[in-house]
Specification:
By secondary structure, this protein is of the alpha+beta class. The chain is built from five helices and eight strands, in the order E-H-H-E-E-H-E-E-E-H-H-E-E. The chain has two domains: 84 residues, no CATH class; 129 residues, Beta-Lactamase. Helices cover 21% and strands 21% of the residues. A five-stranded antiparallel beta sheet has the order 3-2-6-5-4. The longest helix is centred in the first third of the chain and has 20 residues. It is elongated, with a radius of gyration of 19 Å. The protein starts with 19 loop residues before the first strand and ends in a 25-residue tail after the last strand.
Length: 259
C-alpha cells in the first residue's frame, strides 16, 4: 500500500513545551517515516507536489494583489461568470471575510455577504470561518462544504491570503477546491498551527485537540499528542482506549517512530 506515516515534529514545541511530542497520522496504509522542514508563511509554488494545488495558490495570490491595488472595486470582476475568476466547471471561486468572520464577498452564495458566519459549522461540526478569518498572512483551511451545484457535500481545501486594500480595509481572501490530493505542506501547516496552540494554551489546548470537530482534523488526518514516556495524551484513533503506550510501537519496517 502507498500510504505513509508522517512524523512531523515541529521545532517550536521543543522550547516552551518540553513534555510533548507531536505528529499527524495519515491513515491510508502501511507505515513509513518522513521529516519535513517547515516553511511558515511561504507561498513558494515548488513546495507543492500537485499542479492543482499550485494553480490554486497562484490563483489566490494574483487575486490578493488585485485587492491590494484596487480594493473592493475588483469584486465586480471576481463575480463575472465570463471572466477568469469564476469557473463553474471546476467549482473554483473567490470569497472574502473580515477578521471577525463577516462575509465580505461570495459570488456563489451572495446571501451570505454582510453576515457574521463565525458560528457556521460543516457537517462534522467544525467552525471553519474563524479559521479562515484568523489567518494572519496566508495558510490552508480544510472542511466539508456543499458543492455549488448542490448535489453533495465534499471535503474542501481552501487557500487564504490576508490582503490590505488601499483604503486600509483588510480582507482574508481565499478560494478552495474539492477532494484535493493531500500535500505534505498541508500536514506541516496543520502540525505547526497545533503546536502554536499548545505552546500558547497548554492543557486547555489538549482539551480542544480532543474535540472531534477541532480545526486540525481533516479527511483522514488528525493531530495526536504523546508524552515523552510514550503515553498517548490525545489519541483520536482510539477514543475508547485512551492513554495507550506507544514506546514499543514499530512500523512495518521494524522502526520505532517514538523512541
Amino acid at each position: 500500500m502507498a500510504g505513509e506515516f508522517c512524523n512531523l515534529l515541529s521545532p517550536m514545541i521543543q522550547k516552551p513545551f518540553q513534555a510533548l511530542a507531536w505528529g499527524v497520522a495519515l491513515l491510508v496504509g502501511c507505515l513509513g517515516l518522513m521529516r519535513l522542514k517547515p516553511e511558515p508563511g511561504s507561498h513558494r509554488l515548488d513546495q507543492y507536489e500537485f499542479e492543482t494545488t499550485r494553480h490554486l495558490v497562484s490563483f489566490v495570490e494574483r487575486a490578493a494583489r488585485r485587492v491590494e491595488t484596487d480594493g473592493e472595486n475588483v469584486f465586480k470582476e471576481f463575480r463575472d461568470p465570463k471572466g477568469p475568476w469564476l469557473d463553474s466547471e471546476s467549482s473554483l471561486y473567490l470569497f472574502a471575510y473580515d477578521t471577525n468572520g463577516v462575509c465580505l464577498f461570495h459570488p456563489v452564495e451572495m446571501a451570505l455577504q454582510g453576515r457574521n458566519l463565525s458560528d457556521l459549522r460543516d457537517v462534522h461540526g467544525k467552525r471553519m470561518i474563524p479559521a479562515i478569518a484568523g489567518i494572519p498572512d496566508r495558510g490552508w483551511v480544510h472542511y466539508c462544504w456543499a458543492r455549488p451545484e448542490g448535489s453533495s457535500r465534499s471535503g474542501k481545501t481552501s487557500y487564504v491570503v490576508r490582503a490590505r486594500a488601499p483604503d486600509g480595509r483588510v480582507y482574508n481572501l481565499g478560494a478552495g477546491l474539492y477532494d484535493v490530493q493531500i500535500e505534505k505542506a498541508f500536514v506541516r501547516n496543520t502540525v505547526d498551527r497545533a503546536a502554536e496552540l499548545l505552546a500558547r494554551e497548554g492543557d486547555k489546548a489538549v482539551q480542544k485537540l480532543r474535540d472531534p470537530a477541532n480545526e486540525f482534523t481533516f479527511l483522514d488526518n488528525y493531530i495526536f499528542v504523546l508524552g515523552m514516556d510514550g503515553m498517548a495524551i490525545v489519541d483520536p484513533s482510539f477514543e475508547n482506549a485512551p492513554f495507550r503506550n506507544f514506546s514499543d510501537f514499530q512500523d512495518s519496517n521494524g522502526k520505532k517512530p517514538f523512541p
